[in-house]
Each structure stands twice: as structure tokens, then as C-alpha cells.
Design brief:
The protein is 57% helix and 4% strand. The protein has helices at residues 4-7, 17-30, 40-56, 63-87, 109-125, 141-156; strands spanning 32-34, 159-161.
Length: 162
């Protein structure tokens, strides 16, 4: 039997955050099948969190993890970012910050989708510098948007339209 990673569909890279919103709204309206561990609401919450971190700042990681992230940032972080932006792909199955993994209990698709819509508007209207990533360092506006699109595409690959 194929693993979840092998089962997931591959969505063409999304070209704008508005297209991401449209795709999520379509999944909400028409239904979807989750090929991963998260439903639509959990995915929207996770994506909203990461988009917000670029504007508001990243949560402080515990000291051992902070040290590991710093070491990666000063050695391979920039090359990892270039690879993600060049290939349009993020690694599957890697860890993420526990704060961005939301339990399905108490979440509903419409509320989480609305939070995502609002975060996209906020992200698109942001004119200041982005906060430095603990792993990648600083971003240009173009890189920040491109990274968000890759991240959104990555997670939408696990929500198959009905």
C-alpha cells in the first residue's frame, strides 16, 4: 500500500496568494479528501501562523533547537532556501513548530478559512521588512511571497478535491 507521501496529488505551483485562497474556498465548498494528517481547518491555521511569523516575528524556540537553527542558518540555511525557491518544493514529513500544529477539535473550516483570508490580505499589504527566519535569515519581499506560495502548495497537495 502506498504511503501518504506517495498517495498525495501534485498540485501545480500556485502563482498568487489569491489563487491559494480560491483553491481553499473551492475545497471548502465542494469537499475534499485529506491524504495527510490535517483537515482544511488545520491547514489554514498552520499556513496563517507561518505567514504571520514573517510579519510579526517567529516564536522563540527552546535553547537546544535555537542553537541548531542558528548553526543551520549560518551554514546551509541560504542554500536550503534557494533550493526550495528554485524547485518549488518543500521536504515532506519534516518537523514543524508544535505551535503551528493545531488539533482538529474546536476548529471549523469556515472560521479557519476566514483567518487565512485575513492573513493573506495583511501579508499582501505589508510594506515593511520581513522578520528574519530562524532557519533562512532575511528575505526580500519577492522571496517571502515565493516561499509562502511553495509552503501553501506543499500543504494543498494533501487535500484532494472531491
Amino acid at each position: 500500500m502506498p504511503t501518504v507521501t506517495q498517495q498525495r496529488i501534485t498540485t501545480e505551483a500556485l502563482s498568487s496568494l489569491d489563487e491559494v485562497v480560491d483553491r481553499l474556498e473551492q475545497l471548502h465548498r465542494k469537499g475534499y479528501r485529506s491524504l495527510g494528517k490535517w483537515n482544511l481547518a488545520q491547514t489554514c491555521e498552520h499556513l496563517s501562523d507561518w505567514m504571520g511569523y514573517m510579519i510579526d516575528g517567529y516564536p522563540r524556540a527552546p535553547l537546544p533547537i535555537s542553537m541548531m537553527l542558528w548553526a543551520m542558518r549560518v551554514t546551509i540555511g541560504r542554500s536550503m532556501l534557494r533550493k526550495i525557491l528554485t524547485t518549488g518544493k518543500m521536504p515532506t514529513g519534516g518537523p514543524t513548530m508544535p505551535q503551528t500544529v493545531h488539533a482538529a477539535d474546536g476548529l471549523d473550516d469556515e472560521t479557519s478559512l476566514q483567518r487565512f483570508r485575513e492573513m493573506v490580505k495583511r501579508f499582501q499589504s505589508h510594506t515593511g521588512a520581513y522578520c528574519d527566519s530562524p532557519l533562512f535569515g532575511s528575505f526580500s519581499a519577492e522571496q517571502g511571497t515565493a516561499l509562502q506560495l511553495v509552503h501553501c502548495t506543499h500543504h494543498l497537495n494533501f487535500l484532494q478535491p472531491q
